């Protein structure tokens, strides 16, 4: 049995000014509305998070990444920000924020705040000012307004499509349109405008001064845009996107370097320097720009999240990213789940071995709100094996709330309860991302499964949530929660130098790698047991993702940690 880290930690020693704290951190993503509800209105809040800090300590995470908590009408789950330097009254106050961060730090946990620079909400004071001001005004220049086409200017400036479906241009009634790559409630900011740049520097300072340790940068690859006329067609854009060579007018442009160099200068005003991780859905070969130490310093690698549960794919991805980390000087980032994709316990149970079905487009599998085709037991078995494979790797592990419970995607949310704009704007095509955002089950036998003191929950929790509840799993030595707790406690022991050595094994379904301190991680990706390779026969088995009934056999879809 592994000892769990104590629940009270001396803040002074734990949060010593280590500038490298982020390099191999286990970062736990809190989606605040769905984590814990302190006041019983059905919406998770900051005081709910503060109350659950002992849980985070026991889980053993090094940092929390907090999805947006700013004032918002929730047109896109908070990624539509009304005011970048305040707390949503539905979630609490700035005083609650200060209390939360002090308590996190006191427990030895850092805080990474989500920052959303590509677009504000349409309720932001700047956007309201822009609408009230004439075409060509300074107020409109903070966003991307363009004249409509056609004799009466009623046609959009181009045929560009928004990520959530429909036109990317919204008319404002005076012959102009504004650009929104996401929902119409999310007007894109103009990053060629000096005021926009300065305001975000002020925002970074505002939260850094309040103790925020790092930032997760939303759609970091979209800020710089080439909008010279004539605007290219949607079809041309698609072609350039596939080329992935930096010539796309909207994504992944070189001008981003200059923007993030300014951010870096502000991060470096602090001790330890504030960190940042880019959310940039770009080709792996294009990630360097964001991860460079002169830029944001780290970038999400979504390669495992998009991969099939397959030894060869995982092997190639690890090698590629180890090389990437060496080239950039950044550390690796590993992710299986977040608030935008199907939870991996469900993804790995999809039929036809299509376990790479990560994106919301793939949610057609849940047609009519049900997912008859998902093999839940297999999904969980593979998710646990994949997680133990991931947690042994050098670099940061980004975990999404609920994955430590093995929580599946909730497929059966009634249409009337759905919130995600991608559901509404793509009616009948995508069911959206609500299924991974359902409020967490904390207690099997309590109103709202312990999410809050009442039975209110802003997305309906299915009855089967009870069996995944924290209180049941905490008492079960074989639960997914117990596995996560043990692995995260042990993880600190294998975090020496950021390297690994593969162990050659003569079987296509097996992968094994060695970490510092004699730790070895062995995974069977196949669906049949394999005789245990002789190299492992005498080793001490410390942790496994599933039951081991026969010491001479490595079960299907299972990972074991050896010392
Ligand atoms: C990012 C967020 C996603 C959001 C989008 C627009 O991809 O992760 O949730 O909808 O940006 O802000
Ligand atoms: Ca609440």
Q: What distinguishing features does this structure have?
A:
563 residues; alpha/beta; 7-stranded parallel β-sheet; 16 helices; binds alpha-D-glucopyranose; binds calcium ion
What do you see in this structure?
With 563 residues, this protein is an alpha/beta fold. The chain has helices spanning 11-14, 46-51, 53-59, 94-106, 125-132, 194-209, 234-243, 256-267, 288-291, 303-306, 311-328, 344-347, 376-391, 421-425, 470-474, 480-491; strands at 26-30, 63-66, 110-115, 145-147, 169-171, 176-179, 214-217, 275-278, 333-335, 396-400, 501-502, 510-515, 519-524, 530-531, 541-544, 553-554, 558-562. A hairpin with a 4-residue loop joins strand 5 (169-171) and strand 6. Helix 13 (376-391) runs parallel beside helix 16. The longest helix has 18 residues, at 311-328. The chain is globular. Residues 1-13 and 359-370 have low confidence and may be disordered.
